[in-house]
């Protein structure tokens, strides 16, 4: 029985997992770990260095040269790739289009899970991703599985990208990208996206950020001593 508290948040792309995770961490005084950012940073490295994700030797070699670190100041996720701040670049479309393929790779997932488990050994954490409650922390005390209407998710993602200056990507491209990622995430052989049996479903299609936070806090307080 773990002594530290772990809250695992899984779900589909652009469901607001990181938004909820950050809010919960801030409210509870926990550490927030963005597992998705880790896979995106690996993807960025692969793109930059022309690593063929289907080449086991190339992947193994690349993973030996990737050092990821988090700076969670102000409860915002700041991730560095070999010492370089890449928090903004990993959210761009080139990474979004390739991240599902990279994150489905067995070698990549094994290394990321190892690092994630190390982070959650002794501290109270909130972690979001695709397989946190099913693979990384099966013994997490509280698990959420987030979902929302696909059109709403695409609209949210599109607005987020526009707010960050990406005006070249169309709404249709965002919707198609999310559909592709949903399929890849749920059908991959290695740790597919699925709801843990003991996970609480949180459909935020019609919920505000405040409403979903209140719901989650209520569930956390019910499940923790």
The secondary structure category is: alpha/beta
Strand order of the largest sheet: 2-6-1-7-8
Low-confidence stretches: none
- Terminal-residue CA separation: 13 Å
Count of DSSP helices?
A: 9
Got a strand count?
A: 8
Order of helices and strands: EHEHHEEEHHEHEHHEH
List keywords for this structure.
9 helices; alpha/beta; three-stranded antiparallel sheet
Report what the structure shows.
The structure is a single chain. The chain has helices spanning 17-28, 35-48, 56-63, 93-103, 106-119, 132-136, 150-163, 171-187, 209-223; strands at residues 6-11, 31-34, 68-71, 78-81, 84-85, 125-129, 142-147, 200-203. With 225 residues, the protein is α/β, with parallel strands linked by helices. It has a 5-stranded parallel beta sheet. It has a 3-stranded antiparallel beta sheet with strand order 3-4-5, covered by helices on one side. Strand 4 and strand 5 form a beta hairpin. The mean pLDDT is 91.
